[in-house]
Amino acid sequence: MLKTVCLRKKATNSRIKKVIYKIVASNMKQTINLAQIGVGYWGRNLLRSFYHSEYIGTLIAVDPSEKAQQWVKKEYPTIKIRDGFESVLKDSSVQAIVLATPANTHFALAKQALLAGKHLFVEKPLALSVKEAEELVALARLNRRILMVGHTFLYNAAVRTIKSYIEEGLLGQIYYVYSQRLNLGRVRSDVNALWNLAPHDLSILLYWFEKLPLQVSAKGDSFLQDSVEDVVFLNLDFQGGVSAHVHVSWLDPNKRRSMTLVGSKKMVVYEDTSADAKIKIYDKGITKKNIDDSLGDYDNFGKFQLIQRAGDLLIPKINFIEPLRVETNHFLESITTGKPPLTDGGHGLQVIRILEAAQKSLKSNNLPVKISGI
Q: Does the pTM exceed 0.90?
């Protein structure tokens, strides 16, 4: 009798263990074997974020620089190091590739990666022309591979919160937006300040408004290098009368990462460099109030007065998680689920459409250029 009870208990325990094993197995996340090409200025941040991700299986760093290789060995001894791009293209165990290389190499390397059947993350900008970007988007679709562009600010909790304000109508009718992305350096030679800095603001505007601008005009100046603009001013006109002004520069005494939205009900300032006040909501504005007309129906001038309104300043609490961590995990999750990422190739292509039009305007002395693809 005792033996029978013990056998039944063992069988029950065995069944419980099997159930627990199935639950644990079902909750285990699929891991991805990934190779990152380029471990330079921004590439080091990307490598750190991927290294700490729970979705990563094997991580490979590819950079021909001996200095970069030594840095990887010191900081992350478990990361495998290779100095050739071809080796990871031919490696069937590598499922995804990250490109953290100069912008002028993106198209050629991205095309090879997609043709090799790899999922692909490309640092912004996706390419340097609309034609190149369209080809990459088409290749990703043809090969059924995830193509994601590193527009990090769309994974910023403050940017997403402002998006919810716009959707809820908190600001009322949006009149205009202006942004400043300024600092002293880091000066680039492969691209100008437009292609280096403006993609951040343009991707945010596309995310907030969910549409391309109708046209763009741009003016810039080259002070440090011939034909490489250090400072650029962009004006964008959206359907419905909303306008946006973007100022980017490598030659400014102050580091600024701010965007201001002016609406009919409220105004919002987003300051990315602020530690504890990334969003400020101003309950102020100017209201147009109609006045009772005592002159009769024949007076049709429509009398009104402008009343200035000043209310509270609100600084909402933001549950902030490092955007880069959110972004890199989002890429890996997209691979495991098959769902297109927020900043997919299509979004990256829209940013390139604006940049290409702005570059044409820049070279034609600020003449407005219509955006292609609308």
A: no
